[in-house]
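Q: Convert this sequence to structure tokens.
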Amino acid sequence: TFYVNFQDKEDIVASIFERGAVGPIRALNAALTRDQARSISVAYTENLYSYFESEKDYYQKLVGPMFGKDDTFIRVVTRSLFSLNQEILGQDDIGTEQEREYVSYFFASSQAMFCQKWIADGMPIPPKRLAEIYCSMAYSYWFETFDGAEKQE
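A:
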């Protein structure tokens, strides 16, 4: 029965992460305009961290023993967020496809590593504050770069 639904343990982790974290973001993105989604970008990120916090036992057991040894968490989160970022940037049709791919990957992998470190450390920073920190570093680049590209066109 296991192999009818999942290829391996990584597939299970991906399914849990997609259903609990990425699915709700996709649904909200579908219901909002681009500007509305941008206006709540910190809330999106906070929601991601709050999801990890709500499933703290699971993610600490998953990340703790693997931290620095097994990159299952990094691969799963990067792959899922990369796909989500591609969808978001694809809607804007800004820059080349290759540029959007690299930006999508950068932000997905940075978010995955940021989350892994936070989880491994025992989630010492509240989700809202962690979202503010991440967004202050990341989204200013994302928004300025792609808003600037729009203005040049």
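Confidence is low (pLDDT under 50) at residues 149-153.
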